[in-house]
Amino acid sequence: MKYETVKNFVINSLQKEKKNLDKDKKEFESNFGRLEQINNEIKELKQKAKIFNVQKCACCTHPLKPPVVYFFCNHAYHSLCLNAQMKDDMKDNQCPQCDTSKLIYLN
Predict the structure, then answer these.
(1) Are 53 and 36 within one domain?
(2) CA 54, 57, 61 angle in degrees (round to 5)?
(3) Counting runs of H as helices and runs of E as strands, what totals does the chain give?
(4) Is residue 27 over pLDDT 60?
(5) Does 5 share its domain with 36?
(6) Alpha helices, DSSP H only, in the chain?
(7) Are 102 and 90 in contact (CB under 8 A)?
(8) For position 62, which CATH number holds?
(9) Averaged pLDDT for residues 87-94
(10) CA 102, CA 99: separation in Å to the nearest integer?
(11) Residue 76 pairs with which residues in a beta bridge?
(12) Alpha carbon 49 to chain centroid, angstroms
């Protein structure tokens, strides 16, 4: 094998690895930033009460009347609207609009 062939192979391999590392670094930094944001939200929730100022159901848009279900994402639903929106594969404690926000209050 020629020296040039091996050299080019090694250089190309290292360049590909550098691109992968750069991509992984950006993803890590993005995830780390999100983690810091989540930790700050948790700290804030532990230190002070969350105020719900939602006036309308996220499903039917009518004014909220008990029973109401609130989520951390600030969506709120009439209990009947939420039951109608729930998907079979959806966990009971997740907001149907966000699919990630957790149920926090039933009234």
Answers:
(1) no
(2) 115
(3) 2, 3
(4) yes
(5) yes
(6) 3-47, 79-85
(7) no
(8) 3.30.40.10
(9) 61
(10) 8
(11) 70
(12) 21
